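chain below, 235 aa
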Amino acid sequence: MLPQQIAGWLKHSYPDDRELHVSHETIYRTLFKWGGYLRTNLSLAGIEPSEIDTILLTHAHPDHVGGLVNRAGQIAFPNAELVVHQREVEFWRDDGNLSRASERARGNFLIARQVFDGYRDQLRTFDAGEVLPGISAMPLPGHTDGHSGYLLESHDQGLLVWGDIVHFPHIQIKRPDVSIAFDQDPSLAAATRSRLLDLVSSEGLLIAGMHLGELGFARIKRMGGSYGLLYETEA
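prediction:
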């Protein structure tokens, strides 16, 4: 019944689009488009999807999980273990949470469940701590219940992939109290963001995030009474 449920969500979300004809193919194209240039860039790097053995998921919003299935509705990385915070899986699988969601937000649940079901035999959950040698999970709740970052450490160097700590860095770095509609718990998201900005600026950590722009890698610097974002080419 899942494709039919997603179809209903699409029709409800776009009630004025008379040209929208929903089919299983439409559904999987909707999921797949969230993958952006992932498959293209993997191909350019000479990497086949079957060669990927581990995927570290920050959270299960559609723009983060959509690329994990292909146009046929099959998992895009058949040999990969999907690693995600336990609370993230529990939240999206909870029927009570689904029943309380708005009609538009229910589509997020259905997409997350589609991915978790597809990778059910390859799903590994965690609470915190090391998830791979040299890579530790850092729970960063607020944006979603199980939203997490990943700290990569090697010798005296470190990189924190911080997920969706910010969506509009030109605003939220200077004003960490500003949250967005997609934050499940705006107050908690703001508190987590403030705490993390203090941490990464104090430790001089290199950061990477999904909404930082094409340069991708940056550092946070204290600038007077606020913070500033310096992309790595500018640091």
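Strands lie at 54-56, 81-85, 123-126, 129-132, 135-139, 148-154, 157-161, 206-208, 217-223, 226-231. The longest strand covers residues 148-154.
thats it, cya
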